[in-house]
From TrEMBL:
<protein>
    <recommendedName>
        <fullName>glucose-6-phosphate isomerase</fullName>
        <ecNumber>5.3.1.9</ecNumber>
    </recommendedName>
</protein>
<comment type="similarity">
    <text>Belongs to the archaeal-type GPI family.</text>
</comment>
<feature type="domain" description="Glucose-6-phosphate isomerase prokaryote">
    <location>
        <begin position="45"/>
        <end position="205"/>
    </location>
</feature>
<dbReference type="InterPro" id="IPR011051">
    <property type="entry name" value="RmlC_Cupin_sf"/>
</dbReference>
<keyword id="KW-0312">Gluconeogenesis</keyword>
<dbReference type="GO" id="GO:0016853">
    <property type="term" value="F:isomerase activity"/>
</dbReference>
<keyword id="KW-0413">Isomerase</keyword>
<comment type="pathway">
    <text>Carbohydrate degradation; glycolysis; D-glyceraldehyde 3-phosphate and glycerone phosphate from D-glucose: step 2/4.</text>
</comment>
<dbReference type="InterPro" id="IPR010551">
    <property type="entry name" value="G6P_isomerase_prok"/>
</dbReference>
<dbReference type="Pfam" id="PF06560">
    <property type="entry name" value="GPI"/>
</dbReference>
<keyword id="KW-0324">Glycolysis</keyword>
<dbReference type="InterPro" id="IPR014710">
    <property type="entry name" value="RmlC-like_jellyroll"/>
</dbReference>
Amino acid sequence: MFETGLGITFDETTHEFVYPTTVFGPPRAEQRYLKDILHSMADHEAKGPEIVYSIAMDVGLKKDRVDLMARELLFGIVAYADGSIGEEPVKSQGHIHAISNSCLMSTPEVYEIWSGEAIIYMQERATDNPGRCYAIHAKAGEVVIVPPGWAHCTINASKTERMIFGAWCVRDFGFEYADVREHNGLAFYPKFDAQGTIIWEQNPSYQVEKLIEKKPREYSEFSIDTERPIYQQYEQETAKFDFVVRPDLYKSKWLNYIP
């Protein structure tokens, strides 16, 4: 697994995260079951792993806890099962980040893949015309930033390997599902072909022209260092991820945003 500087591991038997003595985190992970997400799949009766993903929100080094709370900044970890859900890969429910009291607007999220391979799918809106649609293919150690207000989901790109990621988000995080559910999911459904490669099927509920597939870019406008884990970057410069909590102060950077 990618070396994050936190030393957190995942117990495959219990589906729980294991923390070193220097790290705080919830005593039990929150589990997302297959029944919880089937409504967001193309096939609402598909079969797959019972526990689709395990979530630990609010983790970090104990020495940083007071500062993280003061900044309204939160670090979370999610572990995705391998396998598939019918013809589709294991993925999260499509959602939009809710309005945060910290800035009175939707907030971004900074993903860092820890193990396996992910696709961060995102679209500008969850209305009939979803705007630009992107699928960002990211491997261990790579970072992807989802901007405020965009509908998105996280996908395990592999049938055979668990995928784990860490992410910076706002402490009072919340999710809006209504528009996505009204459209029976996001604008494109990922599916496995016979060779186990991800292909895309357009959701007819949307008026969309194309899907842009790409690799992560360097986020120089936020001074993201591609050589250091994102938690260590926070340790060395505690204000670096304040844009996650106060995206309203960085509005020019979100205009015509390219993931």
